[in-house]
Specification:
alpha+beta, Arc Repressor Mutant, subunit A, Umud Fragment, subunit A, 9-stranded mixed sheet, two-stranded antiparallel sheet, 11 strands, 26% helix, globular, disordered N terminus
Length: 233
């Protein structure tokens, strides 16, 4: 009886140790990894899409995106992130209740937008299906879509031919990606916005390109970038 009880205790201890080991394998190994994972989770919940390496680096004051890539790789090895190998981006390995990829809504596709030099937005309209989770907490009737042309936002994984999902808003915080209408040229562009005194700086996400600075009176925000669709063909 004593031997049997000892065997049961040993088995129970083994199970606890095994469960603890499995739990440890599912947790970030360092404090910085935990901070990065928490930031990505909060960002996704708020914006409906995953932040880029550049955004994560800015958040933590890290100059090298290679350092962020190492943390991402470590989280991937622990099963906390899943890499999308086609374009080198990544996605959280989590399930969001009531926001599954098979839950669709429709938004208006209003034309195309430049992610390069300013380009006139083509005025046509059709409706396209969009996974609901991409919109985060924004209601579908407050979102429209524009087809991206150019590569000035490529470091944010916004590529030529992608479809940008835009929340219909006229106010923006510094650092947000916006649809900016240049009033004098009656042209629009997709850029990150910063206020510089009496001017507005429209900053690309491409190291080969320079920011565009224009008087604030000549810029109108027409929407905030909220998500991205990448056509399969």
């Amino acid at each position: 009886m004593l031997r049997h009880l000892c065997a049961q205790l040993d088995l129970s201890t083994y199970k606890r140790e095994t469960n603890r080991e499995l739990l440890n394998e599912m947790l970030p190994r360092t404090q910085r990894q935990k901070e990065i994972l928490d930031y990505i989770t909060r960002f996704q919940e708020r914006h409906g899409y995953i932040p880029s390496y550049a955004q994560i680096a800015r958040q933590f004051g890290v100059k090298s995106r290679a350092t962020i890539a190492k943390h991402i790789a470590a989280l991937e090895r622990r099963g906390l992130l899943v890499r999308e190998h086609e374009d080198g981006s990544f996605a959280l390995n989590v399930k969001v209740e009531d926001k599954s990829s098979d839950s669709l809504c429709e938004v208006k596709l209003l034309g195309r937008i430049a992610a390069g030099a300013p380009l006139e937005v083509v005025d046509y309209e059709e409706r396209i299906p969009v996974p609901r989770f991409l919109l985060g907490r924004v209601k579908p009737d407050r979102v429209y879509a524009l087809r991206v042309k150019g590569d000035s936002m490529i470091d944010e994984h916004i590529c030529d031919g992608d479809i940008a999902l835009i929340e219909n808003r006229t106010d923006a915080r510094d650092g947000e990606i916006v649809v900016a209408l240049l009033i004098e040229e009656n042209q629009a562009t997709l850029k990150r916005i910063y206020r510089r005194g009496m001017n507005i700086e429209l900053q690309p996400a491409n190291s080969q390109l320079q920011p565009l600075t224009v008087p604030a009176s000549q810029v109108r925000v027409q929407g905030i970038f909220r998500g991205l669709l990448r056509p399969s063909n």
